[in-house]
């Protein structure tokens, strides 16, 4: 796994005690987490880092912390792209997302810190802990819920609605309206041309829902943006909170 200079960047992150800042880890009993601590290595990931290309086998698992967001991006035979799912501090990134050859590319969308653990080490820990195994299985189910909702939205709804849904998800993860995302990145994730995203951003700005600069989008009217997002965001969050309430608390509790 490489950063922008080809090397992973280490981070000095406290690793003793709770909370860790990742909801999968924080949902574990304290003793379960203590067993994991010697295997967890903190590191920084930067925007644009490609953590794994299509078909690569992963030997590690990442637990994003804070603002870090990582996308699984599907790439077709012509090189066109679209985001399948994304993961922030509510989840984890690992072999369950890319263990099928040709499935997708893992790429960092928002800079932040992650905890990394070897695939084998995590498997051994899960074999010895029913609680940890249950959390890993539960997270896989949340990824399936995300992927199904994203596929439905992509097939049935206009780009404006899909872009609005993505911005709402990003705001939920950061718990802040100022989102570090470029129009080029949104075009890649939505599977559309950059000019299409430029038009959509202008429309949302004209309606007073966002402000945008070259590398940031600021949500100025969340309620209005939710109205544009075709109901997919609200439906997705309701399903995720039903399936995994420990990973997806009510909005007012998001950190």
UniProtKB/TrEMBL annotation:
GO terms for cellular component: cytosol. It comes from the Bacteria. GO terms for molecular function: DNA binding; DNA-binding transcription factor activity. InterPro entries: Env_Response_Regulators, HTH_CRP, RmlC-like_jellyroll, WH_DNA-bd_sf. SUPFAM superfamilies: Winged helix' DNA-binding domain. Residues 157-223 form the HTH crp-type domain. SMART domains: HTH_CRP (SM00419). This is Crp/Fnr family transcriptional regulator. It comes from Roseicella aquatilis. The lineage of its organism: Bacteria, Pseudomonadati, Pseudomonadota, Alphaproteobacteria, Acetobacterales.
């Amino acid at each position: 796994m490489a950063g922008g200079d080809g090397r992973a960047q280490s981070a000095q992150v406290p690793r003793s005690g709770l909370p860790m800042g990742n909801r999968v880890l924080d949902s574990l009993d304290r003793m379960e987490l203590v067993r994991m601590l010697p295997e967890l290595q903190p590191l920084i990931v930067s925007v644009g880092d490609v953590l794994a290309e299509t078909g690569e086998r992963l030997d590690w698992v990442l637990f994003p912390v804070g603002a870090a967001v990582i996308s699984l991006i599907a790439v077709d035979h012509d090189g066109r792209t679209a985001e399948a799912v994304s993961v922030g501090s509510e989840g984890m990134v690992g072999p369950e997302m890319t263990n099928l050859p040709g499935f997708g590319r893992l790429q960092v969308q928002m800079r932040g810190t992650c905890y990394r653990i070897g695939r084998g080490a995590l498997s051994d820990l899960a074999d010895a802990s029913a609680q940890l195994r249950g959390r890993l299985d539960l997270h896989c189910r949340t990824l399936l819920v995300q992927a199904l909702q994203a596929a439905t939205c992509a097939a049935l709804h206009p780009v404006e609605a899909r872009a609005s849904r993505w911005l709402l998800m990003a705001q939920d993860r950061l718990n802040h309206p100022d989102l570090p995302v470029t129009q080029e990145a949104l075009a890649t994730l939505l599977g559309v041309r950059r000019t299409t995203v430029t038009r959509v951003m202008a429309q949302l700005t004209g309606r007073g829902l966002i402000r945008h600069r070259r590398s940031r989008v600021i949500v100025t009217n969340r309620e209005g943006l939710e109205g544009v997002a075709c109901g997919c965001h609200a439906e997705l969050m309701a399903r995720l909170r039903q399936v995994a309430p420990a990973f997806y608390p009510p909005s007012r509790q998001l950190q």
